[in-house]
Design the sequence.
């Protein structure tokens, strides 16, 4: 299964809706696609993982790179983790360093 990304933008908040899986075969494309979409005036980036089935260590590395790239004064948020992806984030310690919300609505409301 491949990765598809759909974009939404409203009030300076850019949302990437991910569908499929992020692994070593498409992690670089994932990074390049997200970086290519970012604009200097965005105030927040939300990665919505509600339809993401799997993320590998290569995908986690990209998430960490995006979090560093999209740091203060902008905000970087993730939402919609499945239980399997949530477990990967917990084991890797990402839940301690990245703001994660259950739903896109909660992520938007936090801004």
Sequence:
């Amino acid at each position: 299964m491949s990765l598809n990304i759909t974009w939404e933008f409203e009030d300076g908040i850019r949302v990437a809706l991910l569908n499929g899986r992020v692994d070593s075969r498409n992690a670089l494309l994932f990074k390049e696609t997200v970086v290519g979409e970012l604009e200097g005036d965005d105030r927040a980036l939300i990665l919505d993982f509600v339809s993401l089935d799997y993320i590998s260590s290569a995908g986690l590395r990209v998430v960490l790179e995006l979090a560093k790239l999209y740091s203060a004064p902008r905000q970087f948020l993730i939402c919609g983790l499945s239980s399997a992806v949530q477990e990967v984030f917990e084991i890797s310690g990402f839940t301690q360093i990245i703001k994660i919300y259950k739903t896109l609505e909660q992520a938007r409301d936090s801004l």
